[in-house]
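Fill in residues.
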């Protein structure tokens, strides 16, 4: 692969055999010794409507409620 200029940016062409779909968003990560990696950008779990953090009930191994006795 070869880095080339396009306007004010540098472009690296990814071969089709890598299986990355066109339009995939990636994040560049700079490593040691001038290395770099591109990793797929993950969705923000706090804005993704398909991810739910709520639970119907708390689960404890002894069937307790998880509260102190007062």
């Amino acid at each position: 692969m070869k880095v080339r200029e396009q306007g004010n940016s540098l472009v690296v062409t990814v071969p089709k055999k890598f299986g990355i779909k066109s339009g995939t968003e990636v994040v560049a990560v700079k490593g040691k010794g001038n290395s770099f990696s591109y990793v797929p950008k993950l969705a923000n779990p706090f804005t993704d409507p398909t991810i739910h953090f709520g639970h119907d009930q708390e689960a404890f191994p002894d069937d307790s409620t998880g509260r102190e006795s007062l």
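The chain has a mean pLDDT of 83.
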